[in-house]
């Protein structure tokens, strides 16, 4: 039976298929083998530089701990203590084989050859993900959004924490107070809780931090007591478990504010500067990133690209492993100016004279350097892993900044030098276009940091609102 079947198949093959097809079928395996060998050759030849980069990065990661231990002996620069147990669990001393896989230089090159992966940070020219939809939604937000603010009198013993400041807001954490001040003077505030989309708890983390009656360690107790008080006095919290409530914090200590109110932390919307994916206190999509902006008066400057002679610039305190790594690799470079400590010259000179300005995390991911860079027309380099960038669901950050992983510090110059003049011009043009979103104004103006933050809150409002019955409406 088996011989008859084989004979039948042979006869069918001989009679039904022409000789040309049989010839093609004979050479097909050979063609596939040659193609495979060609692809292997291309892969080996194109990964030579990546192997070298891997070796440099691995050596860098292996020697960095000893460099940090000896930095106080090799440098006269001031060292600010930092904690070793960082929340992001993504430090620079991890297994080199793991972190190497995350490196830009280690991307799968065959994917690049065939266009499957595009690692170029400047490939997208649009500053907004969808500008038309944003403008349409923004108009609707500006017209309809209503916020109910829990009322507090000037006689309250903690009026300094609960009410907007009377003076101008200054300093690194001014965004928190600027938001409150702008909101209280805006058309978004309503005294009718039935028409409110969101409820604002107006306590200020930065004010609590500097109040000796509360101090840093007393912030969780203050927040817990505040929630208990509004729950007993008002009916609004209990309708949603606080899911339509929000608070604003710019200082990183805000991440412990709900330490003693665990359920509330899961529900309340947080508008915070310290927005990183790893701490359990921040939940992307529920919470939103607030830009940390140093208030500046007057119109922002505009310097021509040709006048920016320096490739990249950073200055700041040595208070994190990432900043120490940046120092050890680039402190003596002539094109990347990495300075630790205070400058003897105005910071504006370096911002205005550099093509790229480096945002690198210190104690926390949040710093005002991104807004500073945009203010002075310098393209930001984001060197802070897993950072939920401000307005990231609106703005296309790859069109006006360069996002770099920590492990790519040794190849930072190579990455920046690989950006052509045309690509840099596009990045800078978009940076100048979006910087209006990173500025505070008194009174606020359209599309500034306040209105963009309100837009983020509007996107997080509940679709269905529960109206109060007359018996529930009490103050």
Automatic annotation (TrEMBL):
The keyword Transferase applies. The chain crosses the membrane at residues 24-44. GO terms for molecular function: glycosyltransferase activity. This is Probable glycosyltransferase At5g03795. Keywords: Glycosyltransferase, Golgi apparatus, Membrane, Signal-anchor, Transferase, Transmembrane, Transmembrane helix. InterPro entries: Exostosin, Exostosin_GT47. Pfam families: Exostosin_GT47. Its main location: Golgi. The keyword Cell membrane does not apply. GO terms for cellular component: Golgi membrane. It is found in: Golgi apparatus membrane. It is a single-pass type II membrane protein. Residues 141-418 form the Exostosin GT47 domain. Belongs to the glycosyltransferase 47 family.
């Amino acid at each position: 039976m088996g011989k008859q079947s084989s004979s039948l198949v042979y006869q069918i093959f001989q009679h039904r298929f022409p000789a040309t097809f049989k010839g093609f079928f004979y050479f097909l395996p050979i063609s596939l083998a040659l193609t495979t060998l060609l692809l292997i050759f291309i892969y080996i030849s194109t990964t030579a530089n990546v192997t070298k980069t891997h070796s440099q990065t691995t050596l860098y990661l292996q020697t960095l701990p000893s460099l940090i231990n000896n930095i106080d002996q090799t440098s006269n620069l001031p060292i600010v203590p930092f904690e070793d147990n960082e929340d992001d669990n993504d430090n620079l001393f991890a297994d080199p084989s793991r972190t190497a896989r995350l490196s830009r230089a280690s991307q799968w090159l065959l994917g690049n050859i065939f266009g499957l992966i595009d690692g170029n940070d400047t490939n997208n020219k649009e500053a907004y993900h969808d500008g038309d939809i944003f403008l349409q939604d923004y108009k609707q937000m500006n017209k309809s959004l209503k916020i109910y603010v829990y009322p507090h009198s000037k006689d309250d013993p903690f009026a300094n924490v609960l009410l907007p400041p009377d003076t101008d807001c200054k300093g690194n954490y001014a965004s928190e107070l600027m938001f409150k001040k702008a909101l209280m003077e805006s058309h978004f505030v309503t005294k009718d809780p039935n028409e409110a989309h969101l409820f604002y708890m107006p306590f200020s983390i930065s004010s609590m931090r500097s109040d000796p009656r509360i101090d840093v360690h007393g912030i969780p107790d203050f927040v817990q007591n505040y929630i208990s008080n509004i729950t007993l006095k008002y009916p609004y919290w209990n309708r949603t478990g606080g899911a339509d409530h929000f608070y604003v914090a710019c200082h990183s200590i805000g991440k412990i504010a709900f330490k003693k109110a665990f359920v509330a932390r899961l529900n309340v919307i947080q508008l915070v500067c310290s927005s990183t994916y790893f701490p359990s206190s921040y939940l992307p999509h529920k919470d939103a990133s607030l830009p940390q902006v140093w208030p500046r008066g007057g119109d922002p400057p505009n310097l021509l690209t040709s006048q920016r002679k320096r490739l990249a610039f950073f200055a700041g305190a040595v208070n994190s492993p990432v900043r120490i790594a940046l120092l050890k690799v680039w402190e003596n470079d002539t094109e990347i100016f990495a300075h630790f400590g205070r400058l003897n010259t105005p910071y504006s000179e370096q911002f205005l004279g550099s093509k790229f300005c480096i945002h690198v995390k210190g104690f926390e991911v949040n710093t005002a350097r991104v807004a500073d860079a945009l203010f002075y027309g310098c393209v930001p380099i984001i060197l802070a892993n897993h950072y939920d960038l401000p307005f990231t669901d609106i703005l296309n950050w790859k069109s006006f900044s360069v996002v770099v992983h920590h492990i790519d510090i040794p190849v930072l110059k190579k990455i920046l030098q690989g950006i052509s003049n045309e690509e840099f011009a596009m990045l800078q043009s978009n940076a100048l276009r979006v910087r209006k979103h990173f500025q505070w104004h008194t009174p606020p103006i359209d599309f500034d940091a306040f209105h963009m933050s309100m837009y983020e809150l509007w996107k997080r409002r509940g679709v269905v609102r529960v109206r109060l019955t007359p018996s529930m409406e009490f103050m």
